[in-house]
Amino acid sequence: MSAPRAHGAFIHPVADALCVGGLLSLAALLLVRDPGAAWYRAAVPFLSLFLNMAHFSASTVRLYGRTGAGESAPAFTYLGPLAALAGVSAAIALAPWCGRAVNALYMTWSPWHYSLQAYGLCVLYAHRAGLPPDAGESRALKAAALFPFALSLMSPVPSNGFLDFIVSPEWAARHLPLYEAYAATRRALSVVAVLLPLALFVRLRAKGRAFPFLIPLVLVSNAAWLAVNQTSFDRWWYLVSAAHGLQYLFVVTTVHAREKSAAEGGVAWPHALRFYGACLLLSYALWRCLPYAYGWLGLGYAESLLLVIAAINLHHFVADAYLWSVRSDQRAAQAVLL
Amino acid sequence: MSPDRARLVLRATAFLLATAVAAGFWRGAREEGGPPSLALSPLSEADRAYDADDHARAARLYRGYLDLFPYDFAAVIRLGRCHLLLKEWRAAADAFERHQRFNPRRAELYEGLAFAYANLSIAETADPVAREAHRARARAYASAALASGARLAPELLGRLGLPVVAGP
Q1: pLDDT in tens, A301-313
Q2: By CA distance, what is A82's nearest residue in B?
Q3: In this complex, do B46 and A302 lie within 8 Å of one another by their Cβ atoms?
Q4: Judged by CB atoms within 8 Å, which residues 194-213 of A form the interface with B?
Q5: Average pLDDT of chain A?
Q6: What are the start-end ranges of the H helices in chain B?
Q7: Beta-carbon separation of A82 and B6 below 8 A
Q8: What is the pTM of this model?
């Protein structure tokens, strides 16, 4: 186990800032001015496989690949996959009735998961820097992380989330001045969401709490992702989800490889390669092959593909919450200090 | 449940999943003519099928996609047109009507509905009451389409007994 360092980085402050702090993604958002460009559209499937889909699989591979898997939550570990498979199969068979609600659940949960990941990373970096946040600081960090999620509930309609069950585009069209005021409020609050972590960081510094710069960076990136996502969901979603995936893969691969290396000896990078390879293979199998299998049961490919993606997301949200819950698993808490 | 039994359930699930993935890979390879591609959304596949005049496959893909994303107006219109091109008048009317509540007051929806009901009234030969009901609905939708700014085909307007508007 390494001694705390002021920057708290997992590998190197620059690498962490680019991948976890989201600097790469912010640069990409500036670079991709036109998300309809042919080169961007051609890159999207690869971004999705190598970063986004691989990160979903990472929580499963980690869940079953670590030492003593299933000891602390056997019900979830052993029965979770069967429950997920049964759930997605039922949702596909009943897609005309419940497909939209399952999709809305995943779309609404997604920004919550993004924001909690940002908060979790802040806590990890604070611990790694030897500055565990006190209860008040934790609350402030959580509030700054969850503010963009609250804003995501104010999405433009149609949002493809649960908001659509309350506010329809027809209602918005009939109450245009009200809707425009709502949209202007949302835009203003998006700016607040980006500035809030910076203000919090300055305030904590003024109080003598020298938290690593990676903390506000993680929070600002998450706020920017969720804000830009609302300007054009269809166009930016893939880039934003790839950035979130890169953030997760960077941390989980590092932690997994170091844990394996400490337990089995040798250098860490072969463990990292094996781990990432398993994630890629599982992603391709579940995302690109499993939806076709439902064709043998006479179920449609389109709803199978979309609902398998929704199920992969939902399973990841639950698995991730379990994996990184410090309270439920002391091993996870120790692993972040590796 | 004992830990041994739970582990057995996990192994059985893994076997089931692996079998399903292998079967899916085989089916996907057969349909795509190679290993399943990295297609992200059935919408792009539906658009490709539509552009290649494979309207039956496009309709299946649009229908599944719209179950989850009912507000995608372009997909609704394309689904309805697939059925019209396949001469599936009832399915076309159902597709347009089902999504009308998500995308109301759109000229293209009314136009598609007018066309579908006009053809349903022609296809209906057994029941004169049903034929007249279809024709009345076609007229109503055609009038709504015209009021929304659509320009309907003179042949359709003539068939419904509506005045033909001269083009510019």
Answers
A1: 999 999 999 999 9
A2: B13
A3: yes
A4: none
A5: 88
A6: 3-32, 42-51, 55-68, 73-85, 89-98, 107-123, 128-147, 154-160
A7: no
A8: 0.90
